[in-house]
Amino acid sequence: MTSREQWSAVDDYLEETAIRPEAAYGRTRAATHEAGLPPIEVPAGQGKLMGLIAELAGARSVLEFGTLGGYSTQWFAAAVGPGGTVTTLE
């Protein structure tokens, strides 16, 4: 097993056991792949971590560079909440 395969297995395990993102996250990921965009979105664990950092910092707005299909944007949006803003640039 290569190092990349090992890290993918760790990411999959975390997503299934600890993070368990809502179904909307999976639909975004699927739509990104169906649109022919490259499968390079962050793993769920990294998305959760980015959102957690934004939450802990008390961020009310986030500027994201490199949106791709919007998967990490969802994590940021959840972190800033209904009164927050996420601006994305691709």
How are the secondary structure elements laid out?
Elements (H helix, E strand, L loop, with lengths): L2 H17 L3 H12 L9 H13 L4 E5 L5 H10 L4 E5 L1
Parallel strand pairs: 1-2
Helix pairs in contact: 3-4
What does this entry look like structurally?
With 90 residues, the protein is mainly alpha-helical. The protein has one domain: 3-Layer(aba) Sandwich (Rossmann fold), CATH 3.40.50.150. It is built from 4 helices and 2 strands, in the order αααβαβ. Strands 1-2 form a two-stranded parallel sheet. α3 packs parallel to α4. It is globular. The termini are far apart. The model has no long low-confidence stretch (mean pLDDT 93).
CATH superfamily: Vaccinia Virus protein VP39
Radius of gyration: 14 Å
Low-confidence stretches: none
- What does the largest sheet look like? 2 strands, parallel
Specify the CATH architecture.
Answer: 3-Layer(aba) Sandwich
How many helices does DSSP assign? 4
Mean pLDDT: 93
CATH class value = Alpha Beta
Distance between the termini: 34 Å
Q: Write down the secondary-structure element order.
A: HHHEHE
Strand-residue fraction? 5-15%
Largest sheet, spatial ordering of strands: 1-2
Tally of extended strands? 2
Structurally, how many domains make up the residues?
1
| CATH fold field value | Rossmann fold
Shape: globular
Query: What structural category do the secondary elements indicate?
Result: mainly alpha
Oligomer: single chain
